Structure formats: structure tokens, C-alpha cells
Amino acid sequence: MLGPVILAASRSDRMRRLISAAPVTKQVVDRFIPGETVDEVVPIIQDLTAKGLELTMDVVGEDITTPQQAEAARDAYLELIDRLKELELGTRAEMSVKLSMFGQALDGGHELALANVRPVVEAAAAIGTTVTLDAEDHTTLDSMFAIHDELRRDFPQTGCVIQAYLFRTEADARRLAANGSRVRLVKGAYKEPAEVAYQQKHEIDKAYVRILKVLMEGDGYPMIGSHDPRLISIAQELARRAGRKLDEYEFQMLYGIRSDEHVRLAAEGHRMRVYTAYGTDWYGYFMRRLAEKPANLVFFVRSVITRG
């Protein structure tokens, strides 16, 4: 029951000010967000790739209120791509983008977001990598899928994210699996009403397995976004039954969570991609990480008590 409360706090300016001002917050946030600038995360990129891991990079920030801010978000990703090119790590790190950062919620937002994200997708392709469109709340998804379809005409490797807790997702998965898309499946981390989403963990887990089976049996490239040991084992079994080789799907986990498991899966020959976020506007991302898993909240509260 804490998840909805935390997600509500993620949208509260008052809570943002309180949590951001707490002396301990920066130390705890560093567990999930290793830097605020490209220069600060370059050593992280180099360290993870040296361990045989791959990355998906997210420049955090969603509260875009002007077209100029959306253009700045675009430019931040282009800067990241330039650095990956310099490091010759373009093939080891993709990008994850939220279309809200590219202006999706503004007037004419659909066209604005498409215009801003396209140069990022083009630049990523030029260095041998790609972009995955993150899923946000359910009201944004039709626009996200339409932009995904448009980008795939020229860049078929462009990926997207689907969320198991939404009722619509199984149908979305069938369409995406049939057309050969790269698809990251996650449980979902936004507060959604009961009219559109499962509310109970066991219902979400069952939906996750059903949808993952659809993806594994389809023609696309499944990306398993989960830290749940049981779901990881199920994913491996579904991949085996579907006759998939180890390079025909991948696991994705968040930076700072179950890092030993990242290395273990990579050592077993699996493609293991670490979702690594950075940037100054970290609050919304951080709060969703707390909402997703009670252990993250316990970690934060314990840190506040012991260091406060």
C-alpha cells in the first residue's frame, strides 16, 4: 500500500523540496543515480562495460514546460552520444528516453516530441546503437506507440517499453511481437486507476508471465526488465521452450539494485543491460524507485535514521 503514497509524493512540490533538502538524500540517491553530468557517469560506463555488461542510459527529467526545455533534453542526449562515440562504446550502450522530456505534454506535443527524438535516434544509429522509448502513464501510450511506429520505418531497431500491470498490454505485446520489435517488459511504476490496471502484485506477476510468453514466442527481441529472481527463472525457461539463443533476448536491471546478479547473468553468457540514469532532475525517477520495491524504501529510511 506504500507504493501509491510514494507515487503521490513524487508529484508533490512540497515533498520534492523537503526530500531534496535533506542532507542524507544525496548520499542515498547516489545508489541509484551515479552522477549529474556526462563526465561524472563516464567512469561508471567504463567500469560496467569492462565487467561484460551493457547499458541503457537515461538522462532524467520529466517536468518539461517549454519547447526550449524539450530542446535542451534533446541536446543532452546528443552530448551523451558524442561521448559514447569518443569512448568507442557506442555498441555497448543504448539510450532510454521519456517522450515527456521531449515535449509530449505541450501544445502540439506529439509532433514536437517526434521532431526532438528523431535526431537522437539518428545519432544513435550512426554510432551503432539505438533508442528505447520508455512507457509513462497510460494517457501517453497511444502517442508513444505512434511515434515508435514512425521511427521504426527508418530505424527498425528502435525499441519501446510495455507495462504488465495495464490491461491493454497483452494486446500491445502481440502486435509488437508480430512486427519484430525490440520490447522491454516491466511491471509498471506509475499510479494507475483500477479501470485500466491491475492493482494487486499477484495479478501483475501473472500478467507479466503471460505477456513474456507472447514476446518469447513472437518475432521480436524481448528485454526482461525485472529484478525478481522468480521471473528471471521463468524468463529463462520460456526462452528455452521458444528455442531462443542467448543473444536473442536480454535482461535489464537498474543500476544500484542486485549488482551481483548483473555480473552473474553476464558470466553465464546472457546479455545483461544495466539501466543507468543520470542528471540533475532526479526526484521523480528516485521516488518511483522507492515505490517499486519496499526494500528500496527501507534502505532510504534506514539511511535517514542512521545518518540524519
Features of this protein?
single chain; 308 residues; 8-stranded parallel beta barrel; 54% helix
Describe what this molecule looks like in 3D.
It contains 13 helices and eight strands. The model has no long low-confidence stretch (mean pLDDT about 90). The chain has helices spanning about 1-10, 15-20, 25-30, 40-50, 65-85, 110-125, 140-155, 170-180, 200-215, 230-240, 260-265, 285-290, 295-305, and strands spanning about 55-60, 95, 130-135, 160-165, 180-185, 220-225, 250-255, 270-280. With about 300 residues, the protein is α/β, with parallel strands linked by helices. The protein has an eight-stranded parallel barrel, surrounded by seven helices. Helix 5 packs parallel to helix 6, helix 6 packs parallel to helix 7 and helix 12 (about 285-290) crosses helix 13. Helix 6 (about 110-125) links the parallel strand 2 (about 95) and strand 3.
